[in-house]
Design a protein that fits this description.
Blueprint: H1 2-37, E1 40-48, E2 54-64, E3 70-71, H2 73-83, H3 85-106, E4 113-117, H4 120-123, H5 128-139, E5 146-151, H6 152-157, H7 159-171, E6 175-181, H8 188-192, E7 198-201, H9 203-207, H10 213-228, E8 232-235, H11 241-248, E9 254-255, H12 266-273
Parallel strand pairs: 2-4, 4-5, 5-6, 6-7, 7-8, 8-9
Antiparallel strand pairs: 1-2, 2-3
Bound molecules: ligand C2E and magnesium ion (3 copies).
Organism: Undibacterium umbellatum
Protein name: EAL domain-containing protein
């Protein structure tokens, strides 16, 4: 009957929540230890200009557990966000990324930029701009070499807190990219006033290219919008030659995805792309 159905489903839900909680607390403790043990590391996925040159790289965090398993950020970043570990991790990521970028600059990747993903809680901290400046200064790169990625949905959670911090960061010279664009609900009116330098078209729209006419229309429209707002547009998650060919019609669109390169360890990045470095890296925005 209805009553027992509801009561058993409630206790079932409660049990699931409790085991979720236990699992989360375990993972949180392990993650805490991982920071102490230096078990986090970064991979870098290139972002290519239309002419095939590397425009920037995006830092993507990974966690190597003691048993050798690699944990992806989609699993542990949300846990870190709930526990304030995210501030410590975020700081480490920016440090590591700026330090690696300085090394890449010295290795001939002149003017290369690094993109770093930020969590919502990092972006509401008013001390973020000064902290970033200190890290950038110490590593010897310039603010325009560092681009912070935040998602549209993050932005829309607390626009009144986040937008002033974004504006300050832009004034200081940092780049800001709107990640997973098209997945949130920011209005176009809002977009007009956002202090951003680029946007990344979410992979879900790229997946349907070139067959799906709706995806073709959406992607064309975002590219056009970006041009009109003087923003760099990056297509992310490009996996096939056909998707690539479609996007290459728009000469100014930047491209990131497995079809061109997977995320790489910094040493591999130097090994694979270092040889091509007679070519200058592009410098638009
Ligand atoms: P994101 O910033 O949107 O990054 C894109 C994700 O798509 C990455 O997954 C990347 O490895 C993957 N990807 C790239 N090209 C392709 C492709 O062609 N096909 C497919 N299927 N996937 C592709 P990853 O590294 O697992 O990162 C997942 C998410 O975790 C990121 O999404 C970002 O939101 C977050 N994240 C990663 N690193 C950090 C970090 O250092 N800090 C914070 N706060 N979040 C991070
Ligand atoms: Mg990103
Ligand atoms: Mg993305
Ligand atoms: Mg994403």
């Amino acid at each position: 009957n209805a009553v027992s159905y509801f009561s058993s489903s409630t206790s079932y839900t409660l049990a699931v929540q409790q085991s979720d909680l236990a699992q989360r607390l375990t993972m949180e403790a392990e993650l805490h230890q991982a920071i102490a043990d230096d078990d986090l590391y970064l991979e870098y996925q290139p972002i290519f200009a239309g002419n095939g040159q590397i425009h920037a790289i995006e830092a993507l965090i990974r966690w190597r557990r003691a048993n050798g398993d690699i944990v992806r950020p989609d699993i542990f970043i949300p846990i870190a966000e709930e526990s304030r570990l995210i501030i410590q991790i975020g700081n480490w990521v920016v440090h590591r990324a700026c330090h690696d970028l300085a090394r890449l600059h010295r290795s001939g990747f002149e003017n290369l930029k690094v993109h770093v993903n930020m969590a919502a809680s990092e972006f509401t901290s008013s001390t973020l701009p000064d902290e970033l400046r200190a890290i950038v200064d110490k590593s010897g790169i310039k603010p325009h070499h560092l681009c912070l990625e935040l998602t549209e949905s993050m932005l829309m959670q607390q626009p009144d807190h986040v937008i002033p911090i974004m504006s300050m960061l832009r004034r200081m010279g940092f780049g800001i990219s709107l990640d997973d664009f098209g997945m949130g609900y920011s209005s176009l009116a809002h977009l007009k006033n956002l202090p951003i330098s680029s946007m990344k078209i979410d992979r879900s729209f790229i997946m349907g290219l070139p067959q799906q006419s709706e995806d073709r229309a959406i992607v064309r429209t975002i590219i056009e919008l970006g041009r009109n707002l003087h923003l760099n547009v990056i297509a992310e998650g490009v996996e096939t030659d056909n998707q690539l060919a479609f996007l290459r019609q728009f000469g100014d669109t930047l491209i990131q995805g497995f079809v061109l390169s997977r995320p790489l360890h910094v040493d591999d990045l130097i090994r694979v792309y270092g040889a091509e470095l007679d070519l200058p890296v592009t410098t638009n925005r």
